[in-house]
Write a structure and sequence with these properties.
The protein has about 240 residues and is an alpha+beta fold. Helices cover about 35% and strands about 30% of the residues. It contains eight helices and ten strands.
Amino acid sequence: KTAFLEAQANSTIDGIMVRDGHGRRILQNQRYVELFKIPPEMLLIKDDRQMLEYVATLVKYPESFLAKVYHLHEHTSEISRDEIEFKDGMILDRYSAPVVGKNGIYYGRIWTFRDITERKRNEDALQQLSMAVEQSPVSVMITDPQGNISYVNRKFTECSGYGLEEVAGRNPRILNSGLNSPDLHQNLWSTITQGHEWRGEFCNKKKNGDIYWEAATISPITNPGGAIVHFLAVKED
């Protein structure tokens, strides 16, 4: 049974460390050792203070890191979740919960650590991209594979007079002035549904009825399997 539990702990992607009620480590899995680069000789010391001081030298904000640990050891009933940023750029999701028996006795505390560095970088990149698109000097429109609008940026609203809430789920035909050649839209749709980029000009109509011209580039957005999941239109008045 002990061997099974140990194997289970070592097969997870999370680093796991368990301390008893006296501050002694009673379990740490291999992932925990890898994440914190624990020296082998330090694993032989069951008192956790030395390892705690060692880890504090690796994190970006050691004071807050240690303060959280000490606080939870004093407040044994609390559950905690936060993030730890390391000097080398790694970011861990840290979760801690008390280990309490059915009889209500406090046996210690379990800590789990998950590497979320890549996820945080992707989130930051996505946020920067979102801000860039929203503040772009050209109109940006995204539709689903059927051509229904799912996103427009602020410049689109300035040019057309339509806000996202007014066009979401609708077809871009709402901008059609009726002055474009029918062949234009047929050629556009045929080109982008075959996975190619289309470039051209539209004579469109604003919400207030004014006519305006746009130069547009419309491209398919595909998933890793090559299937079209969206269309992206970038347009300049």
